[in-house]
Structure formats: structure tokens, C-alpha cells
Amino acid sequence: MVQRKRYNKPFYKQFLRLRKNIQDRPKLFKFKKQKWSKFQQYSKNQLKIYRRFKIKDQFQLSVSKFASRGNSFQRKFRNNLHERKIFSLFYGKLKKTYLKQHILKSIKAKKSSNSSIDFRYNILKFFESRLDTVLYRANFSLSMKGASQLILHGHVLVNGVSVKTKSYILKPNDLIEIAYNTKSRNLVQKNIDRSNFWPIPPKHLLINYRTLQILFVYSNSSNLMPVFNHYLNINSVITNIKKY
Questions:
Q1: Keyword Mitochondrion: yes or no (predicted)?
Q2: What is the rounded distance in angstroms from the CA atom of residue 141 to the CA atom of residue 194?
């Protein structure tokens, strides 16, 4: 019997190519092949206390020190493509069509409303309002994939109703709960125990770890600067989506 070729590369190899431990996966530190050693050391350095708690402004302008370096079309294309891939992988390997649809929609909404709020803020706000993102941010799951599995198997309730769509967009004051059965609660409790409450959940989520409830209290004053544990150039993501 002829074996089929695997055209999709393993999930973690994409982290190696992009040189970033997206989603802070601890499993990366268990790989023993030599090709992972440098990447593991780099990731450990990023977990040092003074770097871990440093605020990373996602809205900063990315300007090169030297005007003649990094400005070729080929390098700009590569950088923009890498930033878009990092953004997509962080939110659960989203398809380019999905990203393009909602990023362009956020930009158009900003132009039509004439609001003073930065459209980059609206883009992050949309993706941070996804149900799977909120579960991951609250440490109810150890990864985006784990969060989507909790949702698809009916372990999550929103305002008392079971929701099985991982891309469900939450509204302010929505209440997220874990289903009232032993299996669901044990799954989430194990994830919380293994996470050691790191990374720290954002302030727009009010979490009760005893009752396993999350109150989504998003507002325009929510601080979205440190939502990633690494720098991400939002402008590069938008540029890649618009042009390609």
C-alpha cells in the first residue's frame, strides 16, 4: 500500500522557521534533536523575569536603525509574510481568507465611524473577543487547539447556553462557564493546575477559578498593548493582507 505524503508540515516546525515560541508551548523544551537546541536556548532567555514582565507595545512604529538596511522589496515581503504567519498561528492557525475578511472589515468600520480609536486596536479587539482566545487567555486551556477542543465537545457555556463554535464572538458582559459535569470541570482544572497561572490573564477578563467562570468586560479603555509575549508588527500583518 502506497503511503500518502504529508504536505502540511508539523505545527511546531513552523515555530522554528519563524524563530518564535508562539503560544509559549512548554512542549518545545522537551525536543531532543540538535536542530532545536539553539531555539530552546533563545526561548529560555525570553522567559527571564526582566523580559517576561516588560511591556511590549504592539502599536509602536517599527523603524530600522539604518536607512539602507532591510528596505529591499524581497526582505519587506518576507518580514510581512512572517508577521502574518505568526499572527495566524497564535490565534489557532487561521486561514488567510478569514484574516483578510475581518481585518479589512475592521478598517472599513473605522473609516465609516470616524472614530478616534486606532483601527489596529479594533483588529486586536475582534480576535481577542473570540471564544477560544478567551479560554486560552484565562488559562482554561494550555493552547488554542485545546480551547477549540473544549468548545467543540460541548464543555463551554455562554450565558447558560452551550456553544460549539470556536470563532463565536463575545459581547461585553457575556458570562462564560464550564459545563456542570465532572468530566468537563476536571479537564479544565487540570489545565489550570499545569499552567501555573502564566501568562497572566488580561484585565478585560474577570475570572473566578473556583466556579470556573469568566466575565467578559471588554471596553474601549481596555489595554491591548501586552496581549502578546513577543513583539508583533501589526502594520506588517495589515500590509501583507492588503497586498497579497
A1: yes
A2: 9
Q: How does 189-219 read in b/e, with b if 16+ C-beta sit within 10 Å? A: eebbeebeeebebbebbebeeeebebebebe
- Per-domain boundaries in the chain: 11-58+69-125+234-243, 130-216
Question: Which pTM does this prediction carry?
Answer: 0.81
**Cβ atoms of residues 144 and 91 within 8 Å:** yes
- Chain segment 21-38, per-residue pLDDT in tens: 888 788 888 888 888 888
Q: Which element (helix H / strand E) includes 174?
A: strand 174-178
178 and 212 in contact (C-beta within 8 Å)?
Answer: yes
Q: Let me know if 55 is exposed, middle or buried by CB neighbors in 10 A (0-12, 13-18, 19+).
A: exposed
Q: What is the CATH number of domain 130-216?
A: 3.10.290.10
Angle 221-201-62 from CA coordinates, rounded to 5°: 65
Torsion sign, CA atoms 121, 122, 126, 129: positive
What is the per-residue pLDDT across 55-76, written as a single tens digit (0 to 9) for each? 666 666 555 555 555 567 777 8
Output the nine-digit C-alpha cell for 208: 473566578
pLDDT of 62: 58
Degrees, nearest 5: CA angle 234-240-45:
50
